[in-house]
Amino acid sequence: MRPLKTTCALLLLLAAWPVLAQEGDPLKSPACGAALARLQSARAASSAPAAVEALRSEAASTCLGMGSAPSRPSRAIQAPIVVPPPRFEVAPALPALAAPSLPPPPLAIDRPPTPAICDAGGCWTNDGSHLRQVPPNLIGPRGLCTQQGGQLYCP
């Protein structure tokens, strides 16, 4: 019994479908064509923005099948937003710094080097040379060095 009720409801719905559907496409109606022609002629004649807006609203309601005018104004009638260009503050250039004065080079005095930093591979001395570690001595660039206290004697 239930399939019969469903079938009857579907047949009734199919019979009422053309009544519920619109008669025709409002975009293809002659009234829409006439409204669009009036709007285009007003735009071509550079009419007042208020007149163009009224014709646009009329064409929209006619061609889109709207019963009432749109609730918000068009964006075309609004004044453009003016944004000022960015302004960048540039700091004045600093004067050039004077060339640094370097200390005078050390005098060549025959002082024996002292080990400054040592590791497993050897020692760096205070004059910048590297001495290799060969237990119990250190080997410098010119040969075997001997250490007596905190002083190194290298050939």
Radius of gyration using CA atoms only: 49 Å
The helix count comes to 3
Beta fraction: 15-25%
Run of helices and strands: HHHEEEEEE
Form type: elongated
Question: What integer is the average pLDDT?
Answer: 76
How would you write the strand order of the largest sheet?
1-2-3-4-5-6
The low-pLDDT segments are none
Helix content: 25-40%
What structural category arises from helix and sheet content?
alpha+beta
Largest sheet: 6 strands, antiparallel
Please count the beta strands (DSSP E, at least 2 residues each). Answer: 6
Distance between the terminal alpha carbons, to the nearest Å?
A: 121 Å
Structure summarized in a few sentences:
It is built from three helices and six strands.
Structure description:
Among the domains are: 25-71; 115-153, no CATH class. The protein has 155 residues and is an alpha+beta fold. The protein contains three helices and six strands; from the N terminus they run αααββββββ. Strands 1-2-3-4-5-6 form a six-stranded antiparallel β-sheet, with no helix packed on it.
Would you spell out the secondary-structure blueprint of this structure?
Blueprint: H1 2-20, H2 30-44, H3 49-63, E1 115-119, E2 122-125, E3 130-134, E4 137-140, E5 143-148, E6 151-153
Antiparallel strand pairs: 1-2, 2-3, 3-4, 4-5, 5-6
Helix pairs in contact: 2-3
